[in-house]
From TrEMBL:
MF terms (GO), sorted A to Z: ATP binding
Keyword set includes Thylakoid: no
Keywords: ATP-binding, Nucleotide-binding, Transport
PANTHER family: PROTEIN TRIGALACTOSYLDIACYLGLYCEROL 3, CHLOROPLASTIC (PTHR43023:SF3)
UniProt-listed InterPro entries: AAA+_ATPase, ABC_transporter-like_ATP-bd, ABC_transporter-like_CS, P-loop_NTPase
Domain ABC transporter residues, every copy: 15-252
Record SMART domains: AAA (SM00382)
Family (UniProt): Belongs to the ABC transporter superfamily.
Protein name: ATP-binding cassette domain-containing protein
Transmembrane segments annotated in the record for this chain: none
Domain of life: Bacteria
Lineage per the UniProt record: Bacteria, Pseudomonadati, Pseudomonadota, Alphaproteobacteria, Hyphomicrobiales
């Protein structure tokens, strides 16, 4: 069944993906993927391991070439954008990657200053000031500024990477499995941080996650990616009713029951 997207008068779209095809060699990982991301929402992106969640994220932000399809950000077709327009759009998003969240040879402060060096001509003193503000914003202690990634806990690394993603005061943040590898308390604290930032900064959040707790507590809507396509999109209440075998297992299986929901959905 085709999923109805677009023509959404009640919600301003910040990202609109249509018929996206991304592949490596002659193998297409993403094959006709559509997605709408609404302004101010936390959208959780789920799907089987290897389904192409990270590939999609990278294609949306232009780090992987598309074979076909369109990606519109703030109404601008990224393929038709001039270099200056593309740069302006790139300044409006921040990214927390699944792997290599931070440069290991740089301190937390230097990591956060990287995007500023790349995209602004702020003075060293201003960059320093902004970095300290971001460190505070993500709940790290001021002393963390001078530490190297190897000296940080998993949770601190995620927060520092988030601070870097927020360096340019973005409108959108892309997070790829931000709570993976964190203990439940750390993961929950990170989710609450994201929710607070959404409320206070008006951020739009595109979050790839496996974490059922994150999906339940933090996400306004969930997009499920399977077989290279968008399988379903909607609030959790709709996800638990979906009859796709992977969806059933994911949202109503043992893990879901252990997480305390989905028990009555079957
Ligand atoms: N640079 C690459 N070259 C070849 N294949 C890749 C590359 N990056 C990802 N893939 C393949 O694309 C598929 C989707 O990967 P990925 O998006 O990382 O999955 P996930 O949904 O777990 O994030 C996988 O089969 C992966 O092996
Ligand atoms: Mg991935």
């Amino acid at each position: 069944m085709a999923i109805q997207l677009g023509d959404d008068p009640d919600h301003e779209l910040v990202i609109k993906v249509r018929d996206l095809v991304v592949g490596f060699g002659d193998r297409d990982v993403i094959d006709g993927f559509d997605l709408d991301v609404r302004r101010g929402e936390i959208l959780g992106v789920v799907g089987p391991s290897g389904a192409g969640k990270s590939v999609t994220l990278r294609a949306v932000i232009g780090l992987l070439p598309k074979k076909a399809g369109t990606v519109e950000v703030f109404g601008l077709d990224m393929d038709r954008a001039t270099d200056a327009e593309r740069l302006a759009i790139e300044r409006r998003w921040g990214v927390l990657f699944q792997q290599g969240a931070l440069f290991s040879s740089l301190t937390v402060k230097q990591n956060i200053e990287m995007p500023m060096r790349e995209h602004t001509d702020l003075s060293a003193r201003m960059m320093d000031e902004v970095a300290r503000l971001k460190i505070d914003l993500v709940g790290l202690k001021p002393e963390a500024a001078e530490l190297y990634p190897a000296e940080l806990s998993g949770g601190m690394i995620k927060r520092a990477a988030l601070a870097r993603a927020l360096a340019l005061d973005p409108d959108i943040v892309f997070l790829d499995e931000p709570t993976a590898g964190l203990d439940p308390i750390g993961a929950n604290a990170f989710d609450r941080l994201i929710m607070t930032l959404k409320e206070t900064l008006g951020l739009t959040v595109y979050m790839v996650t496996h974490d059922l707790d994150s999906l339940t507590t933090a996400c306004d809507r969930i997009a499920a990616l399977k077989g290279g396509k968008l399988l379903a999109i909607g609030p959790m209440s709709e996800m638990v009713k979906n009859d796709d075998p992977w969806m059933k297992d994911y949202f109503r299986g043992e893990r879901a029951r252990a997480a305390g929901f989905g028990a009555n959905a079957a």
